[in-house]
Amino acid sequence: MNDRPGVAVIILTYNESLHLPRALDHVRGFAREIFVVDSFSTDSTVELARAGGAQVLQHPFQYQAQQFEWALENAPITSDWVMRLDADEIIEPDLAEEIKAKLHSLPPEVTGINLNRKTIFQGKFIRHGGRYPLTLLRIWRRGKVRIENRWMDEHLYLIEGRSVTFNGGFADHNLCDLTSFTAKHNSYASREALDVLNQRLHLFKPQLALSAEAAGEQPKIKRFFKESVYNRLPFQVSALLYFLLRYVFQLGFLDGRRGLTYHVMQGFWYRFLVGAKLMELELAVKQATSEEERRSVIVRLSRQRLD
Fold first, then answer.
1. Domain coordinates of the chain in residue numbers?
2. 274: how many CB neighbours lie within 10 A of its CB?
3. Please, what is the end-to-end C-alpha distance for the chain in angstroms?
4. CA 124 to CA 254: how far, in whole Å?
5. Is residue 210 over pLDDT 70?
6. pLDDT in tens, 286-295
7. What are phi and psi of 109, to 5 degrees?
8. What CA–CA distance (Å, rounded) separates 1 from 190?
9. Could you report the per-residue pLDDT of 159-198, keeping only the tens digit for each?
10. What secondary structure letter does DSSP report for 255?
11. Which CATH number does 7-173 carry?
12. How far is 252 from 285, CA to CA, in rounded Å?
């Protein structure tokens, strides 16, 4: 343990018995602490986490940003560095070695580390369609990061210092079937529709604008495009244009048959679903005659708690 860098890994879980042992195996070589923050799983996730050497905390889930903020505030982290990892993500051996080799030599002004994530869908590496690399801030010095309070597509951002990028392998490799994929994205679509509804009607607290220095250039550009261009178009048009951008102009067709399934489902169906849910929410909210009725309508249609 003494030769490992001081890294605490935080993993949020709910019924992740399929993925969690794999995630733990891939971080055990460099992590000093592993915290699994579980949303009261009904499968063997908690038992597997403890068997894999993780400390388990449990807290009711509302949305990712809220759950992760709770984890940062309540996990007894003592390590100098913290990593965010999803249960279905993998830190590949070359990245684990890069972390061990470089972490201690970083100058004090470097407070964050970006990772280049790749997507594996049905065993296929999705190289095109703008899906690789997805550069994300995932490792930071303890106390130097915050997370956006958004229902969906939240980003970590630095409050001090600058970031560098490690180039080792980092993969989002979900092993579930298409039924699970569509169920998960249906929930995502409800939460993202709430974010867009908030942007248009200012129902909740305003969201901060990401800066390239705090969160990285790629998230900043994507957020600007989504909020300033994409969300201002009719969703029937924007979803189709986005799919064509990914599949034709960003060469998504080179990803083959499984790539076609992925780009259609994630790049068209999902975007269309967000727009349709947003339209449903907007119509219902306009018909509400009181603040209480408006909140009740939003809770019923989005199936999200607003507390």
1. 7-173, 178-302
2. 24
3. 41
4. 12
5. no
6. 999 988 898 8
7. -75, -15
8. 43
9. 999 999 999 999 999 999 999 999 999 999 999 999 999 8
10. G
11. 3.90.550.10
12. 37
Torsion of CA 21, 27, 29, 32, to 10 degrees: -110
In eight-state DSSP terms, residue 206 is: P
Element (H, E) at 304: none
What is the DSSP track for 109-122? TEEEEEEEEEEEET
Dihedral over alpha carbons 270, 281, 197, 87 (to 10 degrees): -40
Give the C-alpha separation, 73 to 65, whole Å.
12
With beta carbons less than 8 A apart as the criterion, state whether 114 and 166 touch: yes
Q: Is beta strand 134-141 parallel, antiparallel or unpaired with respect to 81-86?
A: antiparallel
Burial of 78 (0-12, 13-18, 19+ CB in 10 A): exposed
Mean pLDDT over 228-235 rounds to 88
Both tokens assigned to 254: 């080179």
pTM of structure: 0.91
